[in-house]
## 1
Amino acid sequence: MPTIHGRHNSRQLFLRVVIVNPQNVQEYRGARAEYLDGLKFFEALVDTGATTTMISPRVVSALGLSPCGRLPLASISGIPHWPLAYFFHVRFVPYEVPSPAEGQRKFFSVFLNTPVIKGAELPGESGFDVLLGMDVISTGRLEVAPTGDFSFTFNEAWLLARNERE
Amino acid sequence: MTLTHADKVRVIDENLAAFMAVRDALLTDHAGKHALLRDREIKGLFDTPIDAQRAGELAFPDGLFSVQEVSVEASDLGYYSHAYHSRAA
C-alpha cells in the first residue's frame, strides 16, 4: 500500500495533494500514472475535525472549476453558511519518479484516492489551499507520531486503478 | 453561448430557493438522495451527487442545472468553523 511520509509541527499537519478537475480526467485516460504531468499541486491542511474537504478560491480559479450547487456548512452562530460546492478529485503524490536526465521534466507517481469529492469553497485565501476533511482522511490510515513524523497510508480498498473507475 | 460563472451561480441560487421550499417534504421518502434541479424544478433524484451531475450534463448541455442533497445535516469544519464564520460574515 502506498504511504506518504512527512513532518508535522505539533500544531498542524500539511500534505501536498493534487486536485483535478473531473472534466479533465478524460485527457489523462490511457496514460500511465507514472507519466502524468501538468499536475497542479496544493498544500492541504489535514483537519480531522472537518467532515468535508474544502478548496480555496485559488484552486477553483487554477482548475477552472464550475460550481454544481451549494453546500450547507455549520457555523458557530447556528445559522448555516451556503458556500458554492464543486466536484473534484483529490490525488496523493507519494514520491517523485527520478527524471531520466537532468533538465528534463519531473514526473510523479499519483494515486487517486476517492472517485470524486463534492466539497465547497473556502471564504477567501488562507495559508493553505485545501482543507482535507474526514471524507478523504477516513479512506486511509493516518498516523501521527510524537517525534514529529506522520504517515498517511492509503486504504487499499479505495486505491483505484487508473482507467477502471474514472 | 458560454455559460458564465455569474449565470451558473444565479441558476444555483434560484434552484436552491425552490429546493428549500420542498426539502422538508422530500425528507420523508428521499433523505440522502441528490436532487437534480433545472428551472426551479426537481428533474430527478439520485443516489450520489456525481450521478445527478452526470444526468444533468446529459440532459442539459447548456449547464443550467444544479445538484442539492436532500438533507438537513450541515457539514462541519470543526475548529476552522470559527475562522470560516469570521471570514464569511
## 2
Amino acid sequence: MAIELGSVQYRYAGSSTAALGPIDLRVDPGRVVGVAGANESGKTTLCLVATGLAPSVIGGRLDGVVRVDGVDAATLKPHELAQRCGMLFQHASTQLSHTTATVFEEIAFGPCNLGLAVDEVIERVWWALRVAGIEPLAARDPVRLSGGQGQLVALASVLALRPRYLILDEPTSELDPAGTRLVTEALTRIVRETGAGILLVEHKTDVLAQIADKVVVLDRGAVALSGPGAEILADPRLAGLGVESPASVRLERAVRASGLEWPAADGAEVIE
Amino acid sequence: MTAPVATPSIDLETVVFDYPDGTRALNEVSLRIEPGESVAIVGQNGSGKSTLVRQLNGLLRPTSGRVLLGGLDIRPTHVARLAGLVGLAFQNPDRQLFAGRISTEVGFGPRNLGIRGPALDERVRAALDDVGLAEEAATNPYDLGYSRRKLLALASILAMRTPVLILDEPTTGQDARGVARVRGVVARAAAEGRTVIAISHDMEFAAENFGRIVVMRGGAVIADGSPADVLAVDQAALLASTGLVPTFAARTGARMGLGRTATAASFVAALDSTGVRGGR
C-alpha cells in the first residue's frame, strides 16, 4: 500500500523536454513526505503526476509507472483516482466550485457527484468539517472567508472524498502565520485520524520541520536530496538548491559562524 | 544611483477609510515615516495593511483624515504626480502585468514619466538586472512562472526610481533565490536614501531587513517600533491577537535569558556578551 513512482519521466504536451524525472518516490499511508525545491524545479508537476491528473486529464507523455496501492494509475478513471488521491491546489479559489451558497454544500459537492446516499454524504461532510477543524464555518458563504479558512474548506472538500492519499501544492503560500498554523494543525490531525499518506509541497521549511517525516528536494525535475526530515532540512546544500533552511537551522548556523557554541546542541527545549 | 527627487516624509493624520460596502478598513490611523526609513507592516489578513499602503499613492483616498507626502496633501494631487513619487508593487503580479514583452512592461512606467532613448533602456536593463531577469527582456511576461512574474512586477516598479518604494508581500511564493533578490532590492533602495515600505507575513524577513515594524489589527496600528521591541516575546500576546508570533531568534533568546533578540545578529551579539565562547 503506497503511491509509488517508478522511473517516472513526464513531459507536458507540446514540450520537447521533460519537466520531471526520471524520479522514484514512495508515499506510504500515515506518513508525510515533504517536497521542497526552487521555483520551476518540478514540484507542481510532481503533484500532477502523483495524483494521476498528468497525463490522464491534462495530457502530455509519461514514461515509467505510477502505482496507487499497486494499481497502475493509467488504468484508473478520474473519479476512481479522485477517491484514492486527493489534490489540493495552491489557490483555494481555483478549487472551490463557486456554485454553492454554504460551506456545507461546497463540501457535499464531491460526495454528491460520487452518487452516494444522502445520509452518507451528510455524515462525510460533518466528518470532513471536524477533521479540518472548521465545523463553525458550515453555514458560511465559501467565497467570504479569510485565506486560511478558504484553504481549509478546500481541504475539507477533498477529504470528503475519503482519499487514502493527499497531494498538497503549497497550501500555505498565500496564508498569514495564523492561517498557516491552522492548515499545519489540520494536516497533523488528518494523518493521526485517517492514516492518510501526504505529499506536501511547501516553500516554508518551518512547516516541513514540524510535520514532514521525510523530505525530498527537487532540482530541475530530479531528486537532489532525500532523507529524514530533520537531516535534510539541516543540510548545508539546501541554499544552493534554492531552498531556505528553517529559522532554527539558520540561527544555529549564524551562532556557529561567529565562533560561538550553539547552546542548544543537545537541547530539544528550543525546538518547538 | 540616487533618487531623482528628494525623498519625502509620509504623514498619515487620523486616516479613516471605508470601502463602498461600509466596511471600515482603516480606523483613525496616524503614522509618520521619515525620509529613508525602511518599514515593515505586519498583521493578519484583513487587518488593513494593503488598504493603508494604497492611501500613499492615491489609489485609494481617505474617507476622512489626511495623507501628506513631504507636506503635499495627496487628496487633490493628480495620480500622475504621485506616480513619480511612490511606486507600489502589488501582491498579485497579474493585476499589474499587461505587455507582450518584458522590456515593454518594465519600460512602461518610466516612459510615462517622460524618460526616452538610452536613459530608458538603461533603466529597464538595471531594473531587470536587480531581479535577475536580464536574460528574459524579449520574453512574454506570461511565459514566466508565477514567482518570476512577481519579480517582473517588482522590476517594473523599480524602473520608475520613485523615492518611495512600496512592496505588498514581496516574498510570497518566492524560493530562497527569489527572497535573496527581494532582500537585495530592499537593501539597495535603503542605501540610496529611498523610503521602503513592505507588507509581509514573514516575521524573520521583516526583522532581518527593516529598521521599523508597524503591527496592524482591525484597521488600526497596535504596535510600532524597532524589530527588537516589537517582535519581542513579552509582546507575544499582542502579536497573537493579530495572528503573529515573535521570531525564532526572539523566542530562543527569551528562553535563554538573553533579552530581546529579534534577529540572528542580535541573538549572536547577546550570546557573545555572555562569554560562552569556545568553538564547537
